[in-house]
Design brief:
The chain is α/β, with parallel strands linked by helices and 277 residues long. Helices cover 24% and strands 24% of the residues. The protein is built from six helices and twelve strands. The protein has a six-stranded mixed sheet with strand order 1-12-2-3-4-5. A six-stranded mixed sheet has the order 6-7-8-9-11-10. The chain is globular and about 70 Å long.
């Protein structure tokens, strides 16, 4: 009798926690950051960037319409998505409506995407379909390559570094013939920052860690897993950081992986106003 009571109580606790964790996946935080010039000044020419990461469409609790209600709040010059769109072929059909509502923002300087470790779970033919869908919907995909835009007379190099965790990153290729200008780096795994001593970077955008996703009380799963790299051990799993003179931002991401729950973290949409030197 006592054993049955304990089992029922445990089941009740598990159900309650699961429901709480799922509710947290819909509690989106909108972060707004101002990134000063490398010299510390704020003023003059700026670039307004909408940063999304880790959509993980298999475990995303926002509809395209809900996403649009969030992202249309502020003006956007450029959209950057830093990887982990999905990892199953059957989810590809779900991606297009999300890309379309982002396209409705009509960013002045375009929309850009890099790939993450979960995207590379796809078979090569399905990965190609993912890349083609992004480009069909107006996203420039960057795989160890860069392009340069002119923002009111200021050169901005958008440098896309492919996924570090899966061994697809190639810094030499990404930076080859990069002209002098403001270097905005897009990548999925922020651990690449530890390898960039010889590569100029004014601001780097990444994701990958989901802010720990389940932090109860701490994100031990990140700290203890060697595949997650050194940054979690340095307590760098979300937000704004500096390392070796380089500034970078780690998004908590929009979707979840594994279980569709969050504790101690929230889905994130980020607006960065970047002042250019």
């Amino acid at each position: 009798m006592l054993t049955t009571f304990i089992i029922v109580c445990l089941i009740g606790i598990i159900i309650s926690l699961s429901w709480m964790g799922y509710k947290n996946t819909k509690d989106v935080v909108i972060n707004q950051l101002t990134i000063p010039e490398p010299g510390g000044k704020k003023g003059g020419v700026s670039l307004r960037v909408l940063h999304l990461s880790d959509l993980h469409l298999e475990h995303l609790s926002l509809s395209p319409e809900e996403l649009y209600r969030y992202v249309k709040r502020l003006p956007v010059d450029l959209i950057a998505i830093t990887g982990d769109f999905l990892d199953r072929k059957r989810t590809l059909k779900k991606l297009k409506p999300y890309l379309q509502v982002l396209g409705n923002l009509q960013p002045t300087y375009g929309a850009y995407a890099v790939f993450g470790n979960h995207d590379y779970i796809l078979k090569s033919s399905d990965f190609t379909k993912l890349k083609e869908l992004l480009e069909e919907c107006g996203f420039q995909t960057l795989r160890n390559e860069h392009l340069t835009i002119d923002v009111h007379g200021k050169k901005v190099n958008i440098i896309g570094i492919d996924d570090y965790r899966t061994g697809h990153s190639d810094l030499d290729k990404a930076y080859r013939n990069v002209p002098v200008g403001y270097n905005l780096v897009l990548t999925h795994d922020p651990n690449i920052i530890l390898e960039m001593d010889d590569y100029p970077c004014d601001f780097l955008l990444a994701g990958h860690f989901h802010g720990g996703q389940i932090c109860w009380p701490e994100p031990y799963q990140l700290i203890k897993m060697p595949t997650m790299g050194r940054l979690p051990k340095l307590n760098m799993i979300k937000g704004l950081h500096r390392f070796a003179g380089k500034t970078f931002y780690i998004s908590e991401g929009l979707g979840q992986t594994g279980l569709n729950i969050r504790f101690g973290s929230r889905p994130e949409i980020t607006f960065h106003q970047i002042f250019l030197a």
